[in-house]
Every structure is written in C-alpha cells, then in structure tokens.
Amino acid sequence: MTRPPTRQFAAAALAGLLLALAAALAAAPVAAQDAAQDAPPAATDAAAERGARLYLTGEGLRATIAGGAALPSAMAACVRCHRPSGYGGGESDARAPAIAAPVLFAPLTPRRALLLRDLYQERYGPLAKMAARTPRSRPAYAGARDLARALRDGVDPAGAALAATMPRYAIADADAAALTAYLRRLGATPDPGHDARSWTFATVITPDAPEAQVAASLAVIDAYVTRRNGEIARELGRPGFSPGYKGEYADARRLWRVAIWRLSGPPEGWAAQLAARYEADPPFALLGGVAPRDWAVVGAFCDAVVLPCVFPQTDWPGPAAGGMTLHLSGGLAEEAALMAAALRAMGARRVAMVAGAGADARLLARRFALANPDFARVAAPEDADAAALFLSAAEAEAFVAQGGLRAAQGRAVAAGGLLADARGGLAPSLACALHVAWRFAPPDATAPQRRRLRGWLRSRGVADPAEERAQLETWLALEAADHAIVRLVDRPSRALFVETIEHMAEAGLDPGVYPRFSLGPGQRVAARGAAMLRPDAACAAQADAASAAVGRVRSQ
Amino acid sequence: MLTRRLAVWGLTGGLAGGLAGGAAFLAGAQGARAHDAHAHGAQDPAPASPAERFEVRYAAPAAPLVDHHGAAADLATELARGGPVLMNFIFTTCPGICPMLSAMLAATADALGPDLATVRLWSVSIDPDHDTPERLAAYAALYDAPPQWRFFTGAPGAVNAVRAAFDALDDVKMAHRALTLLRLRGDSWLRLEGDVTPDRLAQETRAALAGA
Q: Are the Cβ atoms of A518 and B173 closer than 8 angstroms?
C-alpha cells in the first residue's frame, strides 16, 4: 500500500458520485496523481472499443493461473467468468465477482439480498457459500491504475489479495486504460423496460399462429400474471411484512405488465411493427410468443435492440448462436438433420422425398434436398432405397395405407414435428410404421413434472389439453423470467437476466415437454435429446400403453 | 406454488457441489493468506493450496464414447493398455473452473517434456448434449492439445456411467467440482480434488511412470 487509506476512500466516494463522468474523475486530484489512471476524455470512445474487444475476446491478453499455467487468450477474456453483464457468476466453488460499472467503481459493502441469493438460491458449492458468508468490503476502483494492479498483482485498491482463481495478467498500461473505459460503461445505464412499480414484458404473436394455440398461451400468461401480481400487491400493501426475506427483493418484486404484440401482414413488414411497438413502450424482455413459421425476423429485431427473448414457440428458430433468443428446441431443421443421419446410417442413396400439402412440409423438404445433395432424389418410392416423409399425421396414414412404406422397402423416416398433434403426441399406428425424428419427450411417457403442471393449469381454470404443449411452454417462459427477475434484485441488466436463465435452466425448469432440458453459458437451444424413434418389435406393446395412457388422461 | 418452487431450488442448491477438497476455489477472503505465503513476488499468481491426495481403485465402464476426432472409444478398453492416464471432466462453455483445469493439463503436458510420449491425457465432457466432437476439437485447438490429449463425449447415459465410475457425478453441470485423476497402475488412481499445480502433477505422473 503506497497511498494513504483516507485518500483511497476519498477516491472511492468520488467514483461513486461521478460514475458516468469518467472525464471529471480524471481531472480530480487523486486521479491526477496517478499518471496511468483513465484515458484522456477525447480518446475514451476508441479506448472503450478496444476495451470491449479485450473484455469479450481476450484478444492479445496474456494470463497465468495459480500454479503458473498459461491461459489461452480466449479463455483469459474477462467475459468468460465475469459474463457479458459484468455481474460475474461461476460454478460450484469457483465464483467470479461483479465488475460492472455500478459495482467496480463504488465501494463494496456486504449486501444481505445478494448474500441470500448466493446462499440459498444459487448452484454453488460449499466453499463458495462459506466465502459468501465472509463479509467483504473494499474501496472503489478509482481508475485504470487500480485496475492494472488488480490484473497484474492480484490486489484490490486497498491492497487486499483477490481470490486465487483470478488469473494474473501481463497487461500494458494502454490496455488497462482501455479496459477501464469499457468497464465504466458496462451496466452503467439501467436497461429499459421497468419503472418504480412495474416490469414491462411483451409477447409476440405472428399472423400465421393458429388461434387455438394463441388463445391457450395467452390464457396461461393471464393466469400466471394475475396470480403473481396478486401476490405482489399483497406484499406492497404490507410494507413491513417480509416472510421469506421477500423484503430484500422489493426492488425486483414489482408488478408485471405483459403487452400482446400481434403482428400483421407478411414477414417483411414485421420489423417496422416491432420497432414501433418497442419505441412506444420498450419491454425488458419478450416472453414466450407464438411464431410457428418464422422466428428469424423477430429474433433479428431482438438482437438489434439487445432484447432478451425467452422461449418463443416456433418450428423455425432461425440462426440461434450468439443471439438474444433463448430457444426451446432446434425446430424442424433439427429433425431434418436427424432424418438425414438416419438415412445415411441405413445406407440409403436413392431417396424418395415425399412432401405434403402444408407450407412447413414443402419448405422442410426443399431445405432437406438442398442440405443433402448426396442423396439421389427419386420421385416414386418404388425406385428408392428409402423414403423421407414430410407429411402431416393424416397424410402419413394415407402414405402407409397406400403401400408407400412397402414400396420404400419398409424404410421411411419422417419429421416428427409435422406428425405430432398439438398435445405433443404421436399416433401409435405411425410410431409402429415409421422411423420418426422426434424432438419432444417420448410419446409413451409422461414426466412427473408434467403431471404437476397439468394440476397447476387445471387449478387456474385455463387447462386446454389439446394445446398442452403450448401451455407448458408458455408457463416455462414465465417461470424462467420470474426467477431471473428476482435474481436481478436492483440490477436491471438484460444480460444478467439471460445469464441467470442460462445458469438455472438445468436445475429445475424442465416442464417435461422435451427429453432433457438444459442451457449453459452462451448456449441458445435448451431442449436436448432429440432422437429417432424406431418401429421395433416392442412397438405393439408401446402402442397399447400409449392408447391406455391417452384413455387415462381423457378420463381425468 | 411459486414460493414453494423457490424454496426447492434453494434446497437443492444447498445440496449441490459435494465435498470439493481444495480451498483454492474460494472466491473470497482466503486469497490474502495464499498470497502472503507466496515467495516469488507480486507478479506471480497466488499459489494453489495443496489438493487433497487420495489413492482409490476405480474400474472404468465399457461405455461407448467418441473422441474429438470422431473416433469411437471406450475407457475400459483404453485402460487395458498400461501407463499413466491424466483425466479431468470439463465442458466447453464452462464459465469457471474448466478453463483452469484445461490450462493446468496443458501446462502439465509441457512440463512432462519427453516423458509425455508414454502418458495419456483425457478430458471427458460433462455437457455431452452440447459438446459435439467438432466443438471439442475447437476447444482442444485453443489449448494446442498434443496428440496424447483426447477429449471425449458421447450419449449422456454413457458419459454419466463414466462419471459415476470415477465418483465425479454432480446433479447439474453448473455445480461441477474441480477434480483431476491420475491412473497410477491397473485400477489404482490418484484422486486430486481442488487445485493442483502442473509441477505437482508432472511429478506425480513421473512417479507413476517410474513405478509402472
């Protein structure tokens, strides 16, 4: 420690006051003493840009970890552990603290609300929990010099050592200044979509959405929000009453508003409609939504305005990697990829591609043919080694009844998303005849959590068994958002919201609609375990069990 | 209903993580002690606390895996061939300990020098649904993985069988522990929980080579 503590705390107070005004800070007496504190104001934009690259890609960073091993620069990027939000994270016993502007450039003091999250509502190990119980405080980081010391020597502004997991960086003064410029902006402005009393969300309905699916989904939103807002209103009416420490999260426990954004006309016009709705009343996130034919347009809009989109219902998710949309599944394209792999495993070379009348079916068949040019396309199943079916359930029944399956030597693979009923089921007759690419939970089993959620839907009076999948997926989007919002406490960061859902998806969100359900940092498709269902010897037994199960459900 | 689900998450969160032995992953105040104890000056990272050392017998299952080159393999068959094997469990999008575990294995490979020729390094993905062989290959390239270092994935059932066999099963991947294993001989393994240094690992590996 070279500087006297009083000066440290003066700098801390100053930084706290002038968070958004880096230039003013550079002119302050304490900072002026440190030649390498923040970059000069004129260079701040360029520096922040360079800092963003360092933070996000680790480009050119050299770092070593405890024990002396070198980290590859991509792994040394700050974002890897401190996350895009800058609010940190981690797993098991490795925790990365928050370094976003409101935290780093202000004195750190223990906060009970965050402690409770760490202790009881996060997936961390016993050592991390023990560490969380140890109160930590430090003065504010005054600028680039403090940051450089932390990065190079592993000490905070008061000279106390950082956690042993923090790598040590050989970083140049200019890069430390660039990183500081970026960190001063990271999380400095609260993301829009909330006011003192409420969180605003929206749900997008595209014009091609079937009305029954829309009605069933909106009924779930209405029931969920009504119940939740009732609970919040009761809390607000009794300010001193805080069961379960809910008072600690008062900032996050605000009333919800969910706007319904019904789009109209062809997809080319959707972006303008979304922009107009967003301009008028920006939501914090889009929750659920029904866009069966195309999420790409909405997804591109969400990426452009950095708006989280949580679990929309769509068969065509569009490009997912790196975007703001958390997808339920890979959609029909994922099934087509499974079909192609299955046909190759069968040794098929000449493939009859049979597309039904539906627009989805024709589009999927076209994409399948383009993506798999090694299959020779033949018109009639009689001339083929195998058939690829893009058919509705009724069309597939007709294909089987007319002998198409025999003609294709008994080898027919089908896209399950086109065969499935709205409930998420597969007709036993088809399950017995076809190889089906299936991205949903096995049709002959019902997960326990699905039974529980059926109870929730019935008790709210909104259950629509014919649209069960849409209802469970809508519930899932709301539940994920609910937990992630509370996790924000008073840090309205959309990036942190997304990171929280990534972090917790595996730990309890699965509504039983998909075989497995999980996300991870940066992962964008939650459903796992899509597979080919094979027509095998056990098929008849399965069919019996499935029809018995359907009978049981109907009689409930 | 909502409150109850919150509570359930809290409880399972409390149970997660198991009994990781090394104190080096503490995110909090213990760093001061580690730093003071280090004699090489402030430019060096704080040293790892010594990992707990256990010798345990493990039998690997014949579960079908695939490596980052797309080659099929099962660890039981691989282990029938003698020689030290360094093994850890990672996933490619891991935000916390995997980058360090992998960096540590890479540095160990460097530290082994010519001895590396008779040593195998295995990293098994605990996120097999996401970690395809292609993604593992890209991850391997980040660390300039030598040919002796293979990254495995497979069906979740197969990967879980391997994890269970080595007592490395956590309920969710975000609760996964820092663990490094070294096959000493036969089915005898050195189990190192928490942080280890490349030097320590290279030294243990050389001892295993000498004893084999």
A: yes
Q: Which of A123-137, A249-263, A474-488 has the lowest mean pLDDT?
A: A123-137
- Burial class of residue B4 (count of CB atoms within 10 Å of its CB; 0-12, 13-18, 19+): exposed
CA nearest to A255, candidates A285, A237, A228: A228
Under the banding of pLDDT at 50, 70 and 90, the label for residue A486 is: confident
Nearest CA in chain B to A76: B99
Per-window interface: B 153-182 vs A, CB < 8 A? 156, 170-178
Q: What is the pTM of this model?
A: 0.84
| Interval A140-186: pLDDT, tens | 999 999 999 999 999 999 999 998 889 999 999 999 999 999 999 99
* pLDDT tens column, A261-285: 999 999 999 999 999 999 999 999 9
> How many other C-beta atoms can be found within 10 angstroms of the C-beta atom of residue A27?
12
Output the furthest CA–CA distance in chain A (Å, rounded).
89
- Point out the residue among A69, A92, A231 whose CB comes nearest to the CB of B175: A92
In one-letter notation, the amino acid at residue A15 is A
The dihedral sign for the CA sequence B160, A446, A477, A421: positive
Query: Which residues on A lie below 8 Å from B43 (Cβ)?
Result: 152-153, 168
- pLDDT for A549 equals 54
What phi-psi label fits residue A63: left (phi over 0), alpha (psi between -120 and 50 degrees) or beta?
A: beta
Secondary structure of residue B111 in the 3-state scheme: helix
Please report, as a single letter, which amino acid is at residue A460.
Answer: R
Q: Is B196 on the interface with A (CB under 8 A)?
A: yes
Query: Which structure tokens are listed for A39?
Result: 């970059």
Contacts of A478 in chain B (CB under 8 A): none
What is the DSSP secondary structure assignment for residue A110, as one 8-state letter? Answer: -
3-class state of residue A537 by DSSP: coil
Q: Which residues contact A414 (CB under 8 A, 6 or more apart)?
A: A339, A388, A389, A390, A391, A396, A430, A434, A435, A436, A437
Residue (of A208, A254, A249) closest to A228 by Cα position: A254
Angle between helices A144-153 and A173-185 (to 10 degrees): 110
Which residue among A90, A134, A508 sits closest to B29, beta carbon to beta carbon? A134
Q: Which residue of A has its CA nearest to B171?
A: A507
What tokens does B61 get? 């299952």
A125 touches chain B (CB under 8 A): yes
ipTM score: 0.82
- The strand order across the sheet containing B149-154 reads B52-57, B188-193, B179-185, B85-90, B120-125, B149-154, B64-67, B72-74
Q: Residue A452 has what pLDDT?
A: 92
Nearest CA in chain B to A148: B43
Please compute the mean of the pLDDT values over residues A72-88 and round it to a whole number: 94
Q: Which of A81-90, A129-138, A348-357, B6-15 has the lowest mean pLDDT?
A: B6-15
How many Cα atoms are found within 13 Å in the side-chain-facing hemisphere of B124?
33
- Tell me, yes or no, if A482 comes closer than 8 A to chain B by beta carbon: yes
Give the C-alpha separation, A37 to A536, whole Å. 70
For B129, the closest of A83, A97, A528 (CB atoms) is A528
Task: Tell whether the model's pLDDT for residue A454 goes beyond 70.
Answer: yes
CB contact under 8 A, A92 and B16: yes
Beta strands in A428-533 (DSSP E): 435-438, 516-517, 527-528, 531-533
Report the alpha-carbon distance of residue A41 to residue A48 in Å, rounded: 11
Q: Dihedral of the CA atoms B25, B30, B35, B39 (nearest 10)?
A: -90
